[in-house]
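Q: What structure does this chain adopt?
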Amino acid sequence: MARRRISAEDGHRALTRVAEGSAGRPELATAVRFTLEELAGLAPGNSVEVRVPPFGVTQCVEGPRHTRGTPPNVVETDAATWLALVTGTTTWPEAVAAGKVAASGQRADLGAWLPLFGRRT
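A:
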């Protein structure tokens, strides 16, 4: 299981600030890192690497472990899109179709785990 660095209280506070539109860069970074930790806890494993530059990266989803070079299953997106996905304000298919998420590899579809918070479609 992923090691926790951000408390639930701090993570939810940062998510609230982002949702209100009052988050600065530190709160945005905390919200992204907290939600990456949440995803790693919900979908433990090392077969997919999720990147939200410049704020964080995590490995998740059960399957073959990746150890060197570029992983075969990679998801990359910006912070705003990532937070929209995890809070349910956009869906995985919408974000992928709009080109806001780059997902490569057989296991790179995170739709089964998103949103982490908020509505499920």
